[in-house]
Structures are given as C-alpha cells and as structure tokens.
Amino acid sequence: PNSKTGDGKPRLMLMGQRRSGKSSISSVVFHKLPPSETLYLETTTKIKKEAMHSFMDFQVWDFPGHLDYTGPEFDPENLFDEIGALIWVIDAQDEYLEAIHRLNRMIIYLQSSYPAINIEVFVHKVDGLSDDYRGDTFRDIIQRVQDELSDNNYENPPVSFYQTSIYDHSIFEAFSKVIQKLIPQLPTLEALLNSLCSNSRIEKAYLFDVLSKIYIATDTSPTDIGSYAICSDYIDVVIDVSEIYGWDRFMQIGSTTAGEVGLEETGNQDADSVITMDRKAHNYLYLKEINKYANPSTILNVLTVCSLRYLALICLMGEDSPAGRKPLIDHNVSVFQDALKQVFPR
Ligand code: GDP
C-alpha cells in the first residue's frame, strides 16, 4: 500500500555515506556482478538513475554520500515523489556515528513530508565482523537511531533494520523483504502459497523473480536462511542449463531415483523440474516457471508492472519422493497459476 504508483512502478532509492557499498549492492543484486569484483568499482560520485530489468522495473537512485539531500539544491518533489522505499546503507565496519546522524535527519524530514515512504536500514558489510561483535553492532545502531529520534519526539518511527553483506544471501533476503512490502497483493499471494503447500505436502514454497533472485512471496511457515539459499542456488543451475540450451527449448531435469539426473525436452511449455538435492534423496526441489508462455497481457501485468521476464515457483519437499505425486502437484500448481492471474488482472 505504501508504493507510490505514478506510472505503476514502485521505486527504491539507495542512499548512504560514500563507500558504504551502494554501487556494490546494486551491481551484485541487479547485474550479477561477482561480489569480489566490487573491489574495482568506482565509488558513487553522482546521482545515478538506473532502470533495473527485473520483475518490477524499479529504479535505484544511487546517491553520492557526501551531498546533503535535504538541502535547497535538491528538488524534493522530483526526488521523493514516486519513491516506495528508501534504503539507507550503513557501513558496519566503519565509524558509523555520522552516518546515523544523517540517517536521522533524513527520517525526520521524510516523516514530516513523505510519511508513506518505507525507511529500510541496511547495516552492511557484516561479513567482516565476528558473530558476537556483529550482534552488538547491530543492536547499537538500532538503539542509537531510536534514541536520537525519540529525543526529537519521534517514537516508533516506521524504520526496519537488516544485517546485510554482498558475500552471502543476506543482501537478497533483505531486498526481498523490502520489495514485498511494496506489493499490495502480498497477503493474497501468501494465502495462495499456503494452500498450495498444504494441498501438495510441500514444506516451503517461494515465488521468485528469477533474474534478480528476489523472492516476492513465500508461504507463512517459518523461513530458515538455508532454504532460501538452496532455492537460489538451484535457480543458478537452471539459468546455466537454460543458457546452454535456450529458454524456448527448455529441458526438464528430472530425477526420481537417488542422485540420478535425467534430461528430457518439454517443448514449448512452461518448464518444470524436480530434482533431489542429495544422494540419499532426502530432500526434493520442484521448480516451475510461472508465466513464460502466458499471453503477453498477462505477462505484463502479473505484478501490475512491466519488464517482467518471468517468475518461478520453487518448492522444497522432504523425505518421501514426490515422483508418484507429481501429477497431483502439477495440477495444484496449475490451479495456483490460474489464481495468480486473478490476483493480477489487467
Ligand atoms: P559506494 O560509494 O556507496 O557506492 O560504495 P562501493 O559500492 O563503491 O563500495 C565500497 C567498497 O566496499 C568496495 O571496495 C566494495 O568491495 C566494498 N563492499 C561493498 N559491500 C561489501 C560487503 O558486503 N562486505 C564487504 N566486506 N565489503 C563490501
């Protein structure tokens, strides 16, 4: 509900001090840059508007850290009008008092002029901190932000905090949560995924934007970091395979017996696949492209925004082999797909 819908595209803005990691984050999440190569990125020195080719086509406005965005030289009408969420990046490995002070000025400004904007704080580069120190730093930052705000009579401002790093999955999970808040249909999506899980004996189901590896919804059972990581790695495998063979002649990767992977062409349909994740066949993954071959108007509107390439449904299943149940799962998934089209009609 918080997304501003000027042209129907929720917009994110990335801000923070110089060298806090803004360019690295947008390169890793949206341009698939390997994290180690961010060492050679030039630090952000100007405002960059970047169109992201992802399911939402949102923009990251990458701001240099040393400018004062609330000063008179910036036109806030243009700057904040269509923003759904402001992501503020704080370098947890660096001295952060100044960053917190700037953040608080921004929060106070936004609260008075643009209260609908979600404020999301990424406590970033936590990979460099020991486990104990990481938690302490995180709590310290939250405490300082809250103290300073309450000194200014802002109690319980709508600010969320995340620990992030480009060297693991945390940056993708944080983005997923930020994006989900901007999707008004999220409760419906969650309910659909819940019923899919219970009807098909699925442990965990994710609706992924394949290119960015952001998940736009999951069922409401507890999420553990491991399951996101497994699904995300699987997407990489699928992308590699499909790049070799081409999306249109996508392969079905099937495995019904332990450790064995078979390839089978599925022709011109939404690709799906089931694999075992380990040689003992204790866990299974099911992947289904959701709308690749849907008619164009549906594709354009699945998230009421354009530039959607495709979404994929990925399900985790335990112990018993889903081989015998696959027809049932396929059926339930097609029901789910139909429901999705109702949720996002033209
Ligand atoms: P910007 O000025 O805010 O755009 O910052 P950059 O994206 O240029 O990043 C500054 C430096 O931080 C680069 O050397 C990155 O490699 C490094 N960096 C970015 N993200 C992370 C992270 O999650 N962990 C670590 N250890 N370093 C990071």
Automatic annotation (TrEMBL):
This is GTP-binding protein. It catalyses: GTP + H2O = GDP + phosphate + H(+). Coiled coil: none annotated. Keywords: GTP-binding, Hydrolase, Membrane, Nucleotide-binding. GTPase involved in activation of the TORC1 signaling pathway, which promotes growth and represses autophagy in nutrient-rich conditions. Its main location: membrane. It comes from Eremomyces bilateralis CBS 781.70. Belongs to the GTR/RAG GTP-binding protein family.
